Amino acid sequence: MRGVQIGLIGFGTVGSGVVKVLEENGSLIEKRLGQPLILKRIADLDLDTDRGVSVDHVQLTRNALEVIEDPEISIVIELIGGYEPARSFILNCFRQKKHVVTANKALLAIHGDEIFREARRHGVDINFEASVGGGIPIVRSLREGLVANRITSLFGILNGTSNYILTKMTDGGGEFGQVLQEAQEKGFAEADPSMDIDGIDPAHKLAILLSLACGGRVRFDRIYTEGLSKISPLDIQYSLEFGYKVKLLAIAKIEASQVEARVHPTLVPIEHPLSAVNGVDNAIFVTGDVVGPTMFYGQGAGQMPTASAVVSDVVELARNVLFHSAGRVSTLSHQDRYIKAIGIKDIERVVTRWYMRFSVVDKPGVLSRISGILGKNRISIAAVIQKGRQAREAVPVVMMTHEARGRDVIRALKAIDQLPVVLDETVRIRVEDKLS
To answer: What's the rounded Cα separation, in Å, for the pair 47 and 405?
Structure first.
């Protein structure tokens, strides 16, 4: 039969978007590929819900094995998410000599080493553009567009839910809990938003990007992850006074021996392009030693942007099928013999500037006691904001420090928070001034 036949496992939001793209842009894709893409089978447990797309020409099944074991299907799209049975389905596809496209960031972050190794062993390819940044072509850019570069740093806004919440809080939208509820009501946040607001989702994506940038294996549990729940409108307002915006940033700084890999709220200079990325949009700021700083920006999630990335992967694999060229581009941008384990620096050894907000009793001598403890721990103060006396007992004292090691900051704040004049746990946020 003329064309490249594909199968789809998972007919949810993104899966129905893939069908829509193939319906509406099928003739355009055929002109670019030289052959049509033929969606032969779709597997999903729910075959009754109307997805708003025509599947009259497609064989529907509740049994994923009918897709995986169909000898005419060359490429399988996995869009069910989660660890199992997605992992087993993908490995079974490899055994059937089928190429795979997935958007499953969590699976690749945790089990990517096994999956990539098995794909190579069976002589097939796996593409995963949609796993990071939705419709932003960052995976292909790291594997091919920036192949002449040694990547020195990555800074990413990789979660639309968190970015929406911080944007609304910055624009005066209210406290964290209030804005989160609004995001849930508008469909920008899940009923259980913990993967997003606790930083797990962007950490999954950072693990994938770091693997591509370094050509190596990343232990996900070594990526430091911190969420948004302690950020208040007060911190956002003080950050603006210092000339910064608060963003949940995924950060990788790549050195010869070790790599910094961390996800946490970060103060970003207002003049930096990342500070202007608002709402549910994503952006990845990548610096290469040859090309210099580059930024990739767009819709990081949603049905059609993600479907766009999935279909682009299918087209790339279809070219490999037509020209019998599996393995033409290395999965992790490096040839197998150069793939290595990536050592990640302990977060307590990472050096940054810091924003600190102390909630203290309004009385003389408080600032000197705090600065004394900071000084004993090799932390110097760059700027202070201390508002005038107020009627309430607790008042904020806000500081911006010079660069300090994480271990020293943790030790100092532990001592400061035990002072009788300090009434609440100190808020601390890392600052990134050098983003290239």
So the answer is: 55
pLDDT in tens, 14-61: 999 999 999 999 999 999 999 999 999 999 999 999 999 999 999 999
Grouping H, G, I as helix, E, B as strand and the rest as coil, residue 124 is coil
Q: 412 and 274: one domain?
A: no
Q: How far is 254 from 168, CA to CA, in rounded Å?
A: 32
Both 271 and 174 in a single domain? yes
Q: Are 362 and 202 in contact (CB under 8 A)?
A: no
- Distances in Å between the alpha carbon of 360 and those of 17, 391, 397, 414? 53, 13, 7, 15
Summarised one tens digit per residue, pLDDT across range 68-90 is 999 999 999 999 999 999 999 99
Are residues 160 and 297 in contact, defined by beta-carbon separation less than 8 angstroms? no
Q: Kindly report, residue by residue over 363-410, the tens digit of the pLDDT.
A: 888 999 999 999 999 999 999 998 765 555 788 999 999 999 999 999
pLDDT tens, residue by residue, 315-331? 999 999 999 988 888 88
Q: How far is CA 308 from the centre of its chain?
A: 18
Pairing of strands 292-299, 151-157: unpaired
- Domain span at residue 393 reads 348-431
Structure tokens belonging to residue 269: 């200079």
Query: Same domain for 241 and 197?
Result: yes
Distance, in Å, from the CA atom of 271 to the CA atom of 5, rounded to the nearest integer, reads 48
**Do the Cβ atoms of 429 and 265 come closer than 8 Å?**
yes
Here the CATH number for the domain that contains residue 396 is 3.30.70.260
Residue 16 within a domain: yes
**Rounded-to-integer distance, Cα 74 and Cα 332, Å:** 22
Domain assignment of residue 175, yes or no:
yes
CATH label of the domain that carries residue 286: 3.30.360.10
**436 occurs within a structural domain:** no
Note the pTM of the prediction, 2 decimals.
0.94
DSSP at 200: H
pLDDT of residue 301 exceeding 90: no
217-308-318 Cα angle (round to 5): 75
Helix (H), strand (E) at residue 120: helix 105-121
Q: How many CB atoms lie within 10 A of CB 38?
A: 18
Respond yes or no: is residue 98 known to be catalytic.
Answer: no
Q: Tell how strand 4-9 and strand 75-78 pair up.
A: parallel
State whether 232 and 362 are in the same domain: no
Q: At 152, which helix (H) or strand (E)?
A: strand 151-157
Considering the candidates 20, 168, 205, 247, report the single residue annotated as catalytic: 205
Domain count, the chain: 3
The pairing of strands 394-401 and 99-102 is unpaired
Residues 180, 119 within the same domain: no
